[in-house]
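Quick check before the chapter quiz. The format below is the same one you will see on the exam, so make sure you can read both the input and the output lines.
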Amino acid sequence: MSIRSYKIACIISILLIAVPVSLAEEENDREANWAYAKNINEQSITWVSHYNGTIRWGDRINIDDWALGNFTIELTDLMKDTTGSRIIGSLMTVTRGNKKSTVMINSDESEIVTFEAPFYDDEMKIYANISGERTWSRQLLEPNISIQVFLRDKPGINLSYKIYNEDPRSNASINASDYIKSNKMSYIQISLENKGNVSLMNALLDVNLTNYTIPQKQLLEQKQGMSFKQVENSIIYNLNELKANETRIINLSVIAPISPVNKTFPIPLRLSGRDNKDVEYIHRAEEQILVKPFIEINKQIGSYINYTSTEGDYENVLYLNEFSKVFLYIKNNGDQATVINLIDYVPDNFEYKTEDNKSLNWILSIPAGSSDIITYSVRPIRYKQNSILPEATATFEFDGKNYSVDSDDIEVKIKGADVSLTKDIKVNQQSNGIINATITIHANNQGDQRVSINIADRLPDNADLINGTTSRDNIFLEKDELYSYSYEISIPFEERIVLPAAKGYFIDFRGFIEKDSRKSDYRREIESNQPVIESRPSAPEPTPEDIGQETLENTTNITLSSQVDKEDKKTKLEIIKEFILKLLNIITGNQKEDILETARIQKTDIIAQTELITRRIEETHSSFTWTLGWESQDNENASGGAWKVSETPGSRVTVSFTGTGAVLYYAAGPQGGIASIELDGEPYADIDMYSSVPISQNNRTIASGLENTRHTLAITVSGARNPATSNSIVVIDAIEITQPS
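Here is the expected output.
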């Protein structure tokens, strides 16, 4: 039997189940339909290589094509000549699903794979060649077969489009946009590219413009030399033939739909056509186009200071304490008038000023297609290198529902000097009605400019300066530099002494830095806080003259009261006995001496009750009971060389003591939080441990004038914080107890 006859017999012997008329398979939005396919001459076919390699007996290779599907090609046998001693060809089995076709190929020849309708016999061609020795022997078990698989070329279509807010034909440098505006003219640029070697004939492009409006006056411009028709919401272009390696661009103008919010509206594209075998191809493309709300808000800030950095780079910045204009542009792109409630905001380190001195809240009525502008002024009042001016918000009603849109926020850079003054007090001693205290002034340059500072503090009324000076002049501070100085005072006791604020001013060298001699140095007044001294006075001592003026009745009452107060030391019988004896002495003429003796006893009793001593208890003492969340930290500025720190909300420490008053020592700083205070189960005022500069051994009098009994002080990390702080840390250093001597 000849090779040709054997091949035909093998093909006939294989039972093939008829394939469907339409073998359309969608992959990457592409379809191929063989419903109208026909046989064509091989001379009109362009073959494209899909595989080139070497296989052995029993090997399989896979061919994957988006239009034909997946195929397996297996080397199932080798063909020998009539003598059976020489290999002259190979037998290939091509499988697609449960369909098979067998191909016999002489060495160094190619054969077209025969398929049943609708593929016919012109979709795949296989070339095979025997490598090496062809003589059949027991040693030649696995000869190599060089194989190359070709598929019929098809139109290679790439379909895509871009959107623009301006006509790209008028300006080639315009960039495509990722959104379009409500109810505004938008421009779609469609690209059709045939990368294959076969033309797409009878090509039709269907552009579905549901939700969009097609301007009638634009239709003639959109024709662009091609015939088209409008069918309901679609424009269908007749492209005739899209040739191999040809690219076409179609520009289309539409009006976007009206939307109250950001919403996507697709524009589906469908390109169909046939090749020279009458196989129909369909390509689809669809993107979700973002349509912006018909209410637009654009926020801008102007009047920037042109600042020259030390590197010579120019950048737009805002300067501390100088006003700049904010512009809010509001536009109504809808088809009816709309009432808008517009609200804007400024960050914590800014302040604003409006023309009518009202809040940043406006009610506007804007006609369809119209716009409005709102302006106000802002200035940074505290240094923060990069600040965000937040979005402005517009709320409005549309189709019976409420909507809101936001502008973009604005990032600005801030320049300038920002100096803070802090005044602290530490009571060193209190005796004989005189308080000795140390006053400390801290100046911290938190800005980014070098400054010169002058500070003038003054003493409170009736105070004397013991050591140091209250003022400083011409102190130079670099960025982030802290300067502190202290002095000591003595002052007569009062129940509450409020110290005056330290005052001063600083000058930054703005004119020098900006290299502009027309600008004067910037001067700004500054003022510190006013610390408070709170203490308990010692009782005044009675004099004999005062006592001599007392009546007998008062004297006896004082004496009796004094004695009864000492019931824990004497019995009532002893007290009555002493009282009767003293009364008899008075009657018999010894009144003055007994009065003086009574005064001496009274004085001793008063002194015993009113002279107080203080005792400091460190955080390591057994009187402290700590819950979880506290961490011990060594610090040379702490009262005992260490303190305990926690930022865990709910962490708690209790201190038990016997005395008449308690003062809490703690550390304050830029990360300080707020501590909740309780004494004997009753809530007391919270302690805010925030300070713009670190302060150690800060103190707060929790209570004074208590009964000299057992008390329990509780401090809890509340988790609350000052708006200026960056954390909620609570630092406990020690407690100072007041007790009678």
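If your answer matched, good. The helical segments are 3-13, 216-223, 510-513, 544-548, 552-564, 572-587, 591-610.
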